[in-house]
Amino acid sequence: MNSNDWEIPNFSETSFSEKENTYCLCIPVINEGNKLLNELGEIKAQNLHNEIDIIICDGGSDDGSTEPKRLRELGVNTLLVKKDTGKLSAQLRMGYSYALKEGYQGIVTIDGNNKDNVDAISDFIEALNQGFDLVQGSRYIEGGKAINTPKIRHIAVKLIHIPIISFASGFNYTDTTNGYRAYSRNFLLDERVKPFRKVFDTYELLAYLSVRAPELGFKTTEIPVTREYPKTGKTPTKISFLKGNLDLLKILFNILLNKYDPER
């Protein structure tokens, strides 16, 4: 593993325990408040923190939700706090690079806003054990559930995002915007992938990896998951409606043009 050319944001590290498991769970967050704490509480209640090491990838929360003492009590292994520019993809570059350097053989990612069913973590672990390189959580296959999904989001995913990512990758995805997924170490370290580049700053990395894995012949699959939005109130998202969705369209256009592929 040659990490000399990796472009990683500056960050601080607070470790609460040594590496204990084969895989880690990276949770990107920023000001998720009780949503994060409730999610971690459910993970601990199901004893999942003993199956997978938990790494919090904090984008700079100031709401107290990532207070170290509380995270330690909830079974978190490591807290990483980004001290640099960038959004979600920068947080993921931070977390994934740390995980690979620590020797983890695979990474599961789940959002920290308590929308996803944490019991599926065991299913992601099993899929990695079976040799899959990219495991996409899907609300839309048998056994999956999409609860209270905003109509405009549902339509955009079904009619725009899924068809484009499926076409570009050659894999028939049923869900492509869901951040609940897993990657193998071999896939992330392949020289034809190179995820640790500054071009991945906002929401590019998820789409790129979804395309790159099947495109390069890595074993790809989907497993059923549940994603539940609140019945009322503001939809939890870090994407602004107009600018955010225009940016996502730009990302999809760049995907079709292979703009994110590493130079040969």
TrEMBL record:
The keyword Transcription does not apply. GO terms for molecular function: dolichyl-phosphate beta-D-mannosyltransferase activity. Residues 25-187 form the Glycosyltransferase 2-like domain. Signal peptide: none annotated. Coiled coil: none annotated. It comes from the Bacteria. GO terms for cellular component: membrane. Keywords: Glycosyltransferase, Transferase. GO terms for biological process: glycolipid biosynthetic process. Belongs to the glycosyltransferase 2 family. PANTHER family: DOLICHOL-PHOSPHATE MANNOSYLTRANSFERASE SUBUNIT 1 (PTHR43398). This is Dolichol-phosphate mannosyltransferase.
